[in-house]
Inverse folding.
């Protein structure tokens, strides 16, 4: 309550905007408290009221006023092909906008698998030569928050930690916050006793599916996926993909689109 709100510039590269869709559904903390009391979301070209030249002026103003103090949040990745022409916000290639805004940021957050790992735009054959943001920004601390999208409370949890402790959360070797990405989905999955007992769903809608058996044979990637879905869950802790009857497709892991079928074992 006594701290000034920290300025945040939120950029959108090649993306689908579902990371934003996830973020605005955060229940703990409520996203309205994050946006109105914790951060000052000075620029977000998707949800801000300003548009066009007015929006771009705000971006430059924010950059100058909070030089070295703002957090740069990036949703989406950067296409390098054809001189960056495949993503051209505000009349400049996104890669240039990204470099320019990163130059004066105190830290950079890579929201989602697009910014963290490339995601579908970077899947083979990657016609736009899309790259994750760490390939463009090499001289700033980057926190990766992968997932397609990431869990809302994981996103706001990362921001809350940074504002509360005035430092980055502890990161793993892939720059993901350990507090949310240090365990596999499989480690805390409520279907794990069935895995251990050798009880598997063999076909969609079989007896095992109705009994809630393990989805490993249906291609579940929970054993190789690091994320908080089986602990934090989604929609204010209501459920997650496996609880809805579908295996994890490993959406927070690098290259998950190129690793073969979502429905076969690795
Ligand atoms: Fe959309 Fe997924 Fe990319 Fe987020 S990570 S912008 S949800 S495609
Ligand atoms: Fe592991 Fe997936 Fe089976 Fe859960 S459903 S126990 S994550 S293999
Ligand atoms: Fe993604 Fe697997 Fe969670 S598909 S949403 S990491 S259960």
């Amino acid at each position: 309550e006594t701290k000034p709100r920290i300025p945040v510039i939120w950029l959108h590269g090649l993306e689908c905007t579902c990371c934003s869709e996830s973020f605005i559904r955060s229940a703990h903390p409520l996203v309205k408290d994050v946006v109105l009391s914790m951060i000052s979301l000075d620029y977000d070209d998707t949800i801000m009221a300003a548009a066009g030249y007015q929006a771009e002026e705000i971006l430059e103003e924010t950059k100058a006023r909070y030089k070295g103090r703002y957090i740069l949040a990036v949703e989406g990745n950067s296409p390098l092909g054809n001189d960056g022409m495949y993503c051209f916000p505000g009349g400049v290639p996104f890669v240039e906008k990204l470099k320019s805004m990163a130059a004066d940021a105190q830290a950079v957050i890579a929201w989602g698998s697009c910014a963290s790992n490339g995601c579908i735009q970077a899947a083979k054959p990657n016609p736009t030569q899309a790259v994750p943001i760490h390939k463009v920004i090499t001289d700033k601390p980057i926190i990766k928050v992968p997932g397609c999208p990431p869990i809302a409370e994981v996103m706001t949890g990362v921001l809350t930690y940074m504002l509360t402790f005035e430092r980055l959360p502890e990161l793993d070797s892939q720059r993901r916050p350990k507090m949310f990405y240090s365990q596999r989905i499989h480690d805390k999955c409520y279907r794990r006793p069935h895995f251990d007992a050798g009880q598997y769903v063999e076909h969609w809608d079989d007896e095992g599916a109705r009994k809630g058996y393990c989805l490993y044979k249906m291609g579940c990637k929970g054993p190789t996926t690091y994320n908080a879905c089986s602990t934090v869950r989604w929609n204010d802790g209501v459920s997650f993909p496996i609880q809805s009857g579908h295996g994890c497709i490993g959406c927070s892991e690098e290259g998950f689109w190129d690793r073969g079928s979502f429905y076969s074992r690795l």
Notes: The chain has a mean pLDDT of 96.
